[in-house]
Design goal:
single chain; mainly alpha; 2 domains; four-stranded mixed β-sheet; two-stranded antiparallel ribbon; 26 helices; 6 strands; about 5% strand
Length: about 575
Amino acid sequence: MQRIFKILSILYFLLFIASSLVFWARGDPYVRPELYFVLLALISTIVFAQIMIVNKNYAQKILIFFQIFIIALSFTFTQQALYETVLGRDPWAHWTLVEIIARTGQIPNFQDILNPYVTMPNFHILTATSMIVCEFSYKWAQYFTIAIPTLIILMLTALLLANKVFENQKIGYLACLFVAISCNVLDMVGKSIIPNSLGVAIAFLMLYLFMKDQFTRDSRWQILVIVMALGLVFLHTIAYTFLLLQSVILLFAFILHDRKHFGKVGMWVITLLALAILQWAYISIFYFEQLVRIIEVMFLHGFYIEGYKAALAVPFEYVLLARLGMVIFFGLGGVGILLTFFEHHRDKYKLALVLIAGAMIGGSISFLMPALAAISHRFWFYGQVLGSFFVSFLMVKLWVSTKSPMLKNVFTLALVFFLSWLMFVASVANNDNPLVSEYTIRTGWFDSEIASAKFILLNSNNIPIASDFDFAFYLRYFKTNMIESNRLLHIPLSTPRTFKEVFQESEGLFILRSKLIEDRQFILGGPWDQNPHVPLGRKINNLIKDFSTFRNLVYNNQNIHIFMAR
């Protein structure tokens, strides 16, 4: 086994070098080749095989952890390096708030920035400090200060918690691997780097601390938990809600199996709830009002499947294919949860983990509920983190089963490869070369798009501006940071939902991102009336001709066409 492990390690690094060369030699500066993701999936499969044969050699375990880390590091770093702008949607608003804090040394008023995070600024203070001390731009400050530590916390906690609950090192390292390559984790540490990214990692770490035997009797651990809870409640509301939920479920497990410590755990739940009420109801009033509103809408509307389907611009099969990796992952995790429950439901920690993971994976269908649709991806994120234990549990049981060992091992390795590849090309994680471009919005801006944004902002003279949503809506954040304003600047926008409406408008500018509209799903309309459209493909040339018929072309850099109403 030692020799096989060494051969696999050599093969891993050869393939990793090959993937790096494929990235550097790419033909399109904004697109990583398909071969790059295939190679990442192959080295993920190699790590899986190493975990299955590793012994108690400490050096080999360190090597495996490092190998897992650089898989995720490679995927996220290369994606960030493709664009000068931030990726995702939420990071644009966080970028502006952090820039203002870094420039002025203080947190702005809500009226100046229109961002409720002024009452929960821990993410922004930490990132601004990194920008000042390390002289990073915001883009790289969020990556190195938030994303990388988040990834490390998630991986280490998965390893420690699996060893604590399952007492099986293979499950621990597999959980570490599946956390690192899960599509929603790659999104939160490689694209949409936001307070929830770090918040979920802290909630996850606190779950491990709650399960430590020393927690109920060692004051040092309890002080650490209080400090972390205070930090989390001023970091992110949803992550803190997850902390409350998992604490209540853990309390339930103690009621069933450990009434001796039930009182102490119950006091901690009350303490955490009191912190939440204090922050949400008296400091960050906005989020308490939002919580009340969400509960009201949940009872009024419940599930609305027809509404979800009606809002899709593509057939549902495209959506399923774009999320197939997550669907398979949650399916495997669900089977693992059931097996764990039937075999170990008398163990309070296994029962608690089963119930917590089940709740988060169950929450993955929240996208069908109008009240929770906007935050359903947060359930996907934590659901994949917690589900990694049970996918790993199932994989280990499959690997060690005695029936048809050769066939079973080949099937397992093939499944891991396929699942890994689906994670890397999933729409939620992959901004540049997703499997289903018809269902994927590109959020990073090309250099030509940045140049056109500067041209517009310097020359528009308050003329109403229209474009696809992911360009027009975020121009205000780009302008605020471009001229280093200490308050969020207003840009007059027009929000047509169709191109026919654009042609009918009698004034204003329309910015046509031809490359995006040709290759990707794009959205017209405003924040509350978004209208998704499928890529136009070769029809883009006809659209440009139609624009030239109804409007005057005032700017053209081959990718961006800016038309003014006649």
